[in-house]
Specification:
Blueprint lengths: L14 H25 L10 H12 L7 E2 L2 E2 L17 H10 L11 H16 L8 E3 L5 E3 L4
Antiparallel strand pairs: 1-2, 3-4
């Protein structure tokens, strides 16, 4: 009587091993991307002030994002406000007048003086973080974007 013994060969390239290897690589890559800002603190221009956080609350409470954009994201009825505080002629007084009185299709907002100041500080800090036009950026292989057109 002959006994046949089947021996399962263990392959280095079995589907489960490939899946586990790729999953581990993905986790390592994800951590490296998400932790990159912590390693490069010198490149971060955002000032985390309480006044800017309060300004963001004013922005959200009044649904400014419904009509306006930040960094090219948001509504399309009004202009992108990422760099509005650095535009020539857009002084603090001018911006307060536009927000308080409205213009064209933009309604007037009855903000307190503190809310107005907070909102302007928020817009100033957004302005310091970069430019708004997404067409000026190119995607990179590592999942980040670089600015092509430096002005």
């Amino acid at each position: 009587m002959t006994m046949l013994v089947f021996v399962k060969k263990s392959s280095v390239f079995s589907p489960i091993r490939i899946f586990i290897f790729l999953s581990v690589l993905f986790i390592i890559y994800s951590f490296s991307i998400y932790l990159k800002p912590l390693r490069e603190k010198d490149n971060i221009n955002v000032k985390n002030s309480k006044q800017a956080a309060a300004g963001k609350d004013v922005w959200q409470k009044n649904n400014c994002h419904t009509c306006h954009q930040l960094y090219g994201l948001g509504g399309y009825l009004g202009p992108d406000l990422t760099n509005v505080t650095s535009k020539p002629g857009y002084s603090e007084v001018f911006l307060k007048a536009i927000i308080s009185n409205g213009i064209s299709r933009m309604p007037a907002f009855d903000l307190t003086n503190q809310e107005m100041e907070d909102l302007l500080v928020f817009l100033q800090e957004i302005n310091e973080t970069g430019t708004a036009n997404p067409q000026d950026y190119s995607p990179q292989l590592n999942g980040t974007f670089t600015l092509d057109n430096l002005e």
